[in-house]
Amino acid sequence: MIKTLIVEDDVSFAELLSGFLSKYDHQVSFVPKIQPSLRLLTQESFDLLLIDYRLPDGTGLEILKLVREKGLNTPIIMMTSFNDVRTAVKSIQLGAFDYIIKPVNPDELLLTIKKALEKKEDKNLSSKTIIEEDFIRGNSAVAKKLYQHISLVAPTDMSVIIQGESGTGKEYAAQTLHNESKRSKKPFISIDCGALSKDLAASELFGHIKGAFTGAITDKKGQFEVANGGTLFLDEVGNLSYEVQVKLLRALQEKVIQPLGSTKQIAVDVRIITATNDDLLNSIQQGEFREDLYHRLNQFKIQLPALRDRSDDLKLFIAHFIKLANKELDRNVLEVSKETKNLLLRYDWPGNLRELNNVIKRMVLLTAGATADIDALPEEMLFAANEPAKALGSDLKANNESNEKTLIIDALHKAKYNKSKAAKMLNIDRKTLYAKLERYGIE
Ligand SMILES: Nc1ncnc2c1ncn2[C@@H]1O[C@H](COP(=O)(O)OP(=O)(O)OP(=O)(O)O)[C@@H](O)[C@H]1O
């Protein structure tokens, strides 16, 4: 039995989901808000959390943060409307396993849950093994320059900061740096600092001895020691607390670590690669990140391009992800219709390669035959891809209308297609809304 907690304010959807999952060996509890979910999480332990992004008393990110602060390792899947994807990708930075887009497709949900639970089985925070054939590099000028930089810096022992928006492939870049280094035969350990609680981070990195704190029932090796001779990849390094930053700086400068509660110093030889999609310079100004540590980590900087800035690679990635999804889902999608292709190429992919991979996987899943059609893409992608400024140039009237249309669709979505509610949100009366729906051809 998989103990699953659903946090979702749409009660009928939560009931539907719960009924569906119980057929697949889940024992489901559900609550509609953040507060009761936090209470429940302190009373019971769960194997899986399914959290709606938008909740009546806040966003699902609050639950995510609290779960991680408590040091719980429960896999979390965020459920989000397409319009919230831009912010929902943040949840991955904060340690969510993945997000799925509403309306939830049952097969997609089961697939994501399966992967989340498999990852939990691996238990180790540093477990993602990168399978080379799952990745491609791209042919664009920006991709070539990127891998040229990676090849140049890989054989050195320089600390590298990899910067890039969420989902641009920072982890893959870090692994490539390791594979092309002299350390390639030694461990590559990846730690998601976003998923570590403050208390857990120091012990995860530097280890502890039995009795160092409540709950330390045996000695534990830190990942620095495990990675000795190899590479330690610290993802979302901006999330480390100030105290851990001090310890990290010391470890890097003196090449020794001291497990919590121990008086013994252990010599370590580890190359550090960090990744961030925060602006660390800004965090330094805010006093949240140590400047001396930043300079120690930033001996070389690699900037990963956003997917929208490497449109020459987009077709390659689409074909690659279709191939992977065909294999994984046992489908045989050989092509995409012209309309579908146009949309895939026009959309700006705020969640980058991760979002593209998810959208393609969903598309392949929904395609029984050889040709993927536009209705296998999330409907809202159409609207997002037709953003006013891009499509309409300086035509003010057309821009205003297009903006209005986007706002209306957004409000309808948020109001779960309740037109009275949507009209209220838009501060217009119902009749005006109906007239506008007709005018813009919104169903
Ligand atoms: N070069 C690549 N080839 C194929 N797929 C890729 C590549 N880079 C990234 N991906 C896809 O994008 C997903 C996200 O990549 P990755 O976790 O490396 O991004 P990230 O920048 O570290 O994200 P985050 O900032 O959220 O941690 C991967 O799971 C994979 O599906």
From TrEMBL:
Domain Sigma-54 factor interaction as annotated: residue spans: 136-365
UniProt modified residues of type 4-aspartylphosphate: 52
Protein origin, superkingdom: Bacteria
Domain Response regulatory: 3-117
Pfam families to which the protein is assigned, alphabetical: AAA_lid_14, HTH_8, Response_reg, Sigma54_activat
InterPro entries cross-referenced by the UniProt entry: AAA+_ATPase, AAA_lid_NorR, CheY-like_superfamily, Homeodomain-like_sf, HTH_Fis, P-loop_NTPase, Sig_transdc_resp-reg_receiver, Sigma_54_int
Alphabetical keyword list: ATP-binding, DNA-binding, Nucleotide-binding, Phosphoprotein, Transcription, Transcription regulation
Name assigned to this protein: Sigma-54-dependent Fis family transcriptional regulator
Organism: Pedobacter segetis
